[in-house]
């Protein structure tokens, strides 16, 4: 017994469903263009969102004169009108925190744009520190 080609295709359609239509070239181009616009918009928002409120720091040096004291010297660069906070940590040989301090850098009077402030921070430690580092800096309110 032989089946006609139409009967075989009808049987496959009943079993597996009708073939899905492909996306038209015009619809594909519209989808690609929309995705590209979303990606460009996302990159733009990401790039410009952080520029207004940035702060950077640079470690200059540290001292650990005894088991109970440590100092850290560093530079903080921020917008002159903003207030920034930085945390300074003293670490022992096992990288455990043995001293910690938060430092505030207020607005710089009479200045505009990005300004750099120098900091000399004295820490009390609970045991001998092997290093002192600036852990993080951030703009107030972020």
**Largest sheet entry:** 3 strands, antiparallel
Shape: elongated
How helical, in percent, are the residues?
25-40%
Count of individual beta strands = 6
The rounded distance between the terminal residues' Cα atoms is 79 Å
User: Tally the helices: what do you get?
Assistant: 2
Percent of residues in beta strands?
35-45%
Radius of gyration: 31 Å
Tell me what the CATH architecture of the domain at 55-139 is: Sandwich
Q: Helices and strands, in N-to-C order? A: HHEEEEEE
Structural class: alpha+beta
Strands of the widest sheet, in order across it, are 1-2-5
* Unreliable runs: none
Question: Class of the domain at 55-139 in CATH?
Answer: Mainly Beta
Task: Give a description of the structure.
- This protein has 142 residues and is an alpha+beta fold.
- It has a domain at 55-139: Immunoglobulin-like (Sandwich).
- The chain has helices at 5-16, 25-49, and strands at residues 55-66, 69-79, 84-91, 97-105, 114-124, 131-139.
- Strands 1-2-5 form a three-stranded antiparallel beta sheet, with no helix packed on it. Strands 4-3-6 form a three-stranded antiparallel beta sheet, with no helix packed on it.
- Strand 1 and strand 2 (69-79) form a beta hairpin.
- The model has no long low-confidence stretch (mean pLDDT 88).
């Amino acid at each position: 017994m032989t089946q006609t080609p139409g009967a075989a295709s009808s049987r496959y359609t009943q079993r597996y469903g009708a073939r899905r239509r492909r996306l038209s070239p015009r619809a594909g181009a519209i989808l690609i263009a929309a995705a590209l616009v979303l990606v460009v918009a996302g990159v733009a928002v990401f790039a410009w969102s952080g520029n207004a409120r940035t702060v950077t720091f640079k470690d200059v040096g540290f001292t650990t004169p005894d088991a109970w004291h440590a100092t850290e010297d560093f530079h903080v660069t921020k917008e002159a009108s903003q207030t920034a906070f930085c945390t300074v940590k003293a670490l022992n040989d096992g990288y455990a925190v043995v001293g910690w301090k938060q430092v505030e850098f207020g607005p710089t009077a009479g200045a505009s744009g990005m300004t750099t402030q120098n900091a000399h921070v004295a820490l009390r430690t609970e045991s001998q520190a092997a290093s002192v580092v600036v852990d993080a800096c951030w703009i107030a309110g972020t």
